[in-house]
Amino acid sequence: MKVFLYFYRNIYNFNALIFFKMKKYFFTLFVGLFGIINAQIPTGYYDGTTGLSGAALKTKLSQIITAGHQDKGYNWAVFSSADRDKYYENDNSVLDVYSENPAGPDPYKYTIDTNQCGSYSGEGSCYNREHSIPKSTFNDATPMHNDYHHLLPTDGYVNGKRSNWPYGEVGTASWTSKNGSKLGSSKLNGYSGTVFEPINEFKGDIARIYLYFATRYQSQITTFTYDMYDGSTFKVFAEPFLSMLLKWHQQDPVSQKEIDRNNAVYNYQKNRNPYVDHPEYVAQIWGTVMAVDDASFSKNLTIAPNPVKGNTIQVTGDKDLKQFKTAFIYNTVGQNIQTIENPFQNGNTITIKNLPKGIYILKTGELNTKFIVD
């Protein structure tokens, strides 16, 4: 059982943290804060949030994302712009978090306009609309029912398997989808029921969707019933689910896919997911967890030497790095420490600034990895 140590929101004294050798047990405050620069945030959208934290920040965000929200009804329209695969196979097929295989060919593909369904005969039959927050928890009420920030296109059969089960981490699987999503008994300490676990690639996406929902509907959330909720307006999520969501958010940072989807949904229903635009808000509201690093969350990018001893690093990845025009270095508070233009045009060695000792994240395109400055 992994043990999570809570830190208060504003404590970031990294010199007090003890880091173990890479490939061993590796503790870190790790807040996934990526893609902020690329998000098309309207000027002034988050006015009034500066200096706020905790419940005050969450309430202000709730006011902001509620004020502009337009209920567009229940339809398929936004998926055409929000959920095409431009990131993995780059073939404009439906980007389904329950069937996408990030490491190779997808087990099946759907065309946005022709494979929609309300019934299915098995996995790979068709895709439908998944309420990632089960609609039974809010009795099909609107605008929750029609809120596309938590409505995802997913394989109909897998959607049915997930049913209304909470998201969680599976100990013993009773069923596994073709991309590795699992249904089974929970291994979370404090919850022994049935849970559904998406693959690592999309756990952060799910976490930020849930935190959005807890913020957008905080004035109503106490009337909703679900195993994941604690009945409160502020915290919203019961343990161990809150720790799990914070961990997922930290381990799987914001991707370009999420940024693009956030922009598409905003263009459609006129409100945004603040935790995609500003992932640092998560720590400012709920705090962070300190978790054993899971190497499986690394997205196919490596740095040598690691820990870093000087100002140059050698970067390798499972893709041709020359295709990436920009690289970003973030600290664990989410600040963009360095932006490197055309980093790999003359080889894979890049120069970093004189960084204080601590943990940093290098991100380029869809690839990212953590490194230590010793």
Automatic annotation (TrEMBL):
Alphabetically list the UniProt keywords. Answer: Hydrolase, Nuclease, Signal
Annotated coiled-coil segments of the chain? none
Pfam families documented for this protein: Endonuclease_1 (PF04231), Por_Secre_tail (PF18962)
Q: Does the entry feature the keyword Magnesium, yes or no?
A: no
Molecular function in Gene Ontology:
hydrolase activity; nuclease activity
What range(s) does the Secretion system C-terminal sorting domain occupy? 304-370
> PANTHER family annotated for this entry?
ENDONUCLEASE-1
User: What NCBIfam families does the annotation carry?
Assistant: Por_Secre_tail
Q: Which family does it belong to?
A: Belongs to the EndA/NucM nuclease family.
What is the name of this protein?
Por secretion system C-terminal sorting domain-containing protein
Tell me which species this is from.
Epilithonimonas mollis
